[in-house]
Each structure stands twice: as structure tokens, then as C-alpha cells.
Amino acid sequence: MNLHIVTLTVYSLGLMALGLWIARRVRGAADFFVAGRQLGPGLIFSTMLAANIGAGSTVGATGIAYSHGTSAWWWVGSAAFGSLVLAFVVGPSLRRVAAANNLKTIGDYLEFRYSRAVRGTLSTLLWFGSIAILAGQLIAIGTILQAVAGLPFALGCGIGGAVIVVYFAAGGLLTSAWVNAVQLAVKLAGFAIATPLALAGAGGWAAIASVQSPDPSYWSFWRSGPPGIMYLAVLGPAFFLSPGLLQKTFGARDDRAVRMGVGLNALGLFLYAAVPALLGVVARARFPDLVDEKLALPMLLIQGLPPLVGAFGLAAVFSAEISAADAGLFMLTTSLSQDLYKRFVNPDASDARVLLIARWTTFVCGLLAVALAI
């Protein structure tokens, strides 16, 4: 058993154990759906930033930088701009409405604002969209574990799905928020260690500056075409309109928690955006002939770093992908249990019954997503 697999196994067991331990504080559906509306700025910050640094912001953004250069910053940078709108415009007002009217989900808000029919229609559409997103994140997990740790693709998808399902089924947003805090710490530490070592291994700034690319705009940060500043218009709005992110603000204890937590998340994204951009350029310097840009980050973890650092880097990437995936599972579970089951199938369901359905729904949706991914 190699170092990467040992590290991944210990880390996965730790995340599941933490989720089960935090779950002791879950007393009802409100704790599961909105964490009892008690999340402060710190946990809002960590759960938001953890959700926003996923497969696209690690493997995907590094691959874009490998092919197109420094303008890949805008992939994550656009999320930062969108998060500012969520922090200071959309989030606080939506949280106030949710708290004043005991709204637990985006579906609750849609019915409050529009109608029961709108709630049912959009909740169903969101469910189908969310299962596709979750399956996509599991595919990314399976791919990175196959490339770096040598695990079979299907097993990698299954490991990712199992970890997410166990800790999320235990306590929903409450456990997810705390587990996300650990995942975020691992991500930030992993990339903070790996990035300078990868740069040094490539020969430092002098070697990076001499990178050659068939793309004439490789070093153009402000390029307007794809990938570049146009991401601001294409991707930015998703980060203040995404149901999964909006619903996390329902768990904040007050407007200040939203403004500070989501605002700090935006700051974190502004800073982190430079990491995949730099790693992609480093990968271009080290491995100029890759046939697939998505192999840029895996190759750095395997061949561009010392084994122990590479294993820690794998844990960071794994953290990124499962924390983004649990946001998709969050939407799946709440859409089925609260928006569809509670509202349309069994309106008289007790709080305990809804909580039970939410937990079982987590397992069913997780299994379905793994099946779709494989």
C-alpha cells in the first residue's frame, strides 16, 4: 500500500468520524437543514470557501493555466467577485426573510415568494441538476485518485461518495460546516506547501518566465477571450445565484455572519485564484508535452513534488472535491425531503419523520450519484 493510499485512508476515516461526532448535536430537522441558524462568521467562511474550491478550481483551473497561461486566474477570480455580491447584497436580505418566516430551503423561499407550483417545478429541476453536479464531482474524485494513487476509477468514485454520504447523513449542514472547516485547513495548508516546492522544483522564477506556448496570449492576464476576463460575466453570477450557496446563508445566525463570512470567502478566493494559475504554468515548464491539460495537477503531485508533500497535496485536492460535492448532496437531500416529500407527499410529517427521510435520502442520492459517475 503506497503512501498516497495510506494518507487518503486515514484522512477519509477522520472526516467521517468527525461528522459522526458532531452529529450528536443534531436535535431536529432545523439543525440538519440550517444548522439551527447558529453559524457564525468563521463557519460561514469555511463552508463557503470549501464549497467554492472544488474540482474546477483545482484540477480544472490548473489545466486551463497549463494551456492558456495566467489568465486562468479569472476562473476562480470570477467566483470572488460573485461572492462579494452574495456577501453584501443578496445574502443578508435573503437570510432575514428566511429567519423571519422559518424558511429552511430555497424551495420554501420560492413558495413564500411565488407559489406552491413554482416550488414544486423548480425543486424538481434543481434535483435533476444537482444529481448531475454531484456525479460530476465524483467523476473528478475518481479520476484524480486513479491518476495519483493508482486506484481503480470506480473505487475512487465509491470512496468519495462514501465519505460524503456518511458525514452529511449524520447531521446535514451542521456536520458539513464543521467538516468543511477541516477540509479547508487541509486544502490551504496543502497548497501553501506544494506551490513553492513545485516552483522550486521547476527551476524557480527564471525557468517559469522562459516557458514557451503556442498560445500567443499565454502571459496576458487581461485577455478578453476565453479563458480570461469574460469569465467574470459567464461564471460570476453563479456565485450569488447558486441555490446551494444561497441556502447555506440560511444557517447564519445574523446578517453580520453573512457579510463577514461570505466576504472573507471572497477575499480567500481572490488570493487562492493565483495558486492554480501558477501551478499550471509550473506544470507547463516541467511537463510541456502533456496530451491532456487535466493531467497537469496530477503530474505535479506524482512527479513534481517529494512523496510526502505529494501525498499531502492529494489530500488537499481530495478535500477540494468532496467539499464541493457535499454542496450538491445538500441540495439533493433538502429538495427531496423538505421541498417534495414534506410539502407534497406527507404535509403532516413530524419533524422527526422529516429528519429521518432527509438522512435516508442522503444515502439514496449518494448511491445514485456514484452509479451515474461510474
Protein architecture, described:
This protein has 374 residues and is mainly α. The chain has a single domain (3-18, 39-373), classed as Sodium/glucose cotransporter (Up-down Bundle). It is built from 17 helices and no strands. The protein has helices spanning 3-22, 29-34, 41-52, 55-68, 73-100, 106-113, 116-149, 153-201, 204-209, 231-235, 238-241, 243-249, 255-272, 274-286, 296-303, 307-345, 351-373. Helix 6 runs antiparallel to helix 7, helix 7 crosses helix 8 (153-201) and helix 8 packs across helix 14. The two termini are 24 Å apart.
List keywords for this structure.
374 residues, mainly alpha, Sodium/glucose cotransporter, 17 helices
Briefly note the CATH topology name. Sodium/glucose cotransporter
Q: How far apart are the termini?
A: 24 Å
Share of residues in helices: over 70%
The CATH class is: Mainly Alpha
Q: Architecture, CATH level 2?
A: Up-down Bundle
Number of helices: 17
CATH superfamily: Sodium/glucose cotransporter
Total individual domains: 1
Main structural class: mainly alpha
Q: Output the helix-strand order.
A: HHHHHHHHHHHHHHHHH
Sheet of most strands: none
Shape: globular
> What's the total number of strands?
0
Radius of gyration: 20 Å
Q: List unreliable stretches of 5+ residues.
A: none
The overall pLDDT, averaged over residues, is 90
How big a fraction of the residues is strand? under 5%
Concise structural overview:
The chain is an all-alpha fold and 374 residues long.
